[in-house]
Amino acid sequence: MRQFLLLLVLSLSFCSAQKRKASDTFQQGIELTQQADSLITLGKYKEAIMVLNNAIIKTPDNYTAYLLRAQSKYILKDYTGAFQDYKSVLMMNLGKEDNQALAYANLGIGTCYNRAKNYLEAIRYLKAAKAIDSTDTRTYDGLAYSYFSLTQFDDALVELNALLKINPQHKEAYLSRGIAFLFKKQYQSAIADFDRALALDAGYIVAYHNRGKAKKALGDKAGCCQDWHKCYALGMESIEPDLKTVCD
User: Fold this and answer.
1) Euclidean distance between CA atoms 142 and 82, whole angstroms
2) One domain for residues 136 and 177
3) Do 25 and 145 fall into the same domain?
4) Is the pTM of this model over 0.90?
5) Domain that holds residue 117
6) In terms of Cα–Cα distance, which of 154, 116, 122 is closest to 138?
7) Which residues form the signal peptide (predicted)?
8) Cα 59 from Cα 118, distance rounded (Å)
9) Is residue 4 domain-shared with residue 124, that is, in the same domain?
10) Cα separation of 118 and 193, whole Å?
11) Do 17 and 62 contact (CB within 8 A), yes or no?
12) What is the pLDDT of residues 36-91, one digit of tens each?
């Protein structure tokens, strides 16, 4: 199962509520935040963090700046720093008009906890994010990953089913649901989901690999080897020992 890396692609729409109460200093903070957002778009995360540091000094309650800085820190693998920035947002006295910021902060904290393998805490925060915004597929992604890591496959399936209702074109969700079925030894259901993932991406190596596993479990050696040879043809050299053992 792929590790769900949930990078938060943020919109500066959060700033709209804050602009209504803007002073000159606050406006400077908003402009710095917009500048940092442009730097993030260019992949200049260190530079963005420096600009956001100044934005936060000028506007300590600028939650958009904290969220963007958390995103940048996460990408740079400063997970502790990202966690602290997300926490700072939750500590602000935000109202209902700021619910989207709260959802992002809870999602970010849950993602950090998943990264730290603290899955129970991840579930707590991801559920909080889902309670605020039930349309964000990343929350279901994160919860499925948490439950999967705890080998709670039925719970993972619940989240993946909900995710796929929101986005039926989510190939990673079909892959993950297929792997959950694989662990539950429901091989036909697993194959059906790997088929769906491959219908969306014919070059999806990991789907071929896992579909081969399911076919092997059903005694379909020819089908298994066909999928694993496809993996090798697509560049998965690590499959070669299995090809020699099972298929040659």
Assistant:
1) 17
2) no
3) yes
4) no
5) 1-154
6) 122
7) 1-22
8) 32
9) yes
10) 28
11) no
12) 999 999 999 999 999 999 999 999 989 999 999 999 999 999 999 999 999 999 99
Distant-in-sequence, close-in-space partners of 156: CB < 8 Å, separation ≥ 6:
143, 144, 145, 147, 148, 176, 180
Domain with residue 202: its CATH number is 1.25.40.10
Q: How is residue 128 written in tokens?
A: 């909080």
Amino acid 30: pLDDT: 87
Best CA proximity match to 30, nearest among 3, 56, 1, 69: 56
Residue 159 located in a structural domain: no
- Count the Cβ atoms, other than its own, within 10 Å of residue 178: 29
Q: How far is CA 37 from CA 28, 58, 76, 101, 187, in A?
A: 14, 17, 15, 16, 45
Asked which of 154, 181, 201 is the last residue of a domain, the reply is: 154
**In the chain, what is the straight-line distance between the N-terminal and C-terminal CA atoms, in Å?**
27
DSSP assignment string, 216-238: HHTT-HHHHHHHHHHHHHTT-GG
Q: Dig out the tokens for 243 from the structure.
A: 């090809």
Q: Domain total for the chain?
A: 2
At 158 the three-state DSSP class reads: helix
**Whether 59 contacts 70, CB under 8 Å:** no
Residue 92's region, left for phi above 0, alpha for psi from -120 to 50, else beta, is beta
Measured over the CA atoms of residue 129, residue 131, residue 133 and residue 139, the dihedral's sign is: positive
Residue 161 in any domain: the answer is no
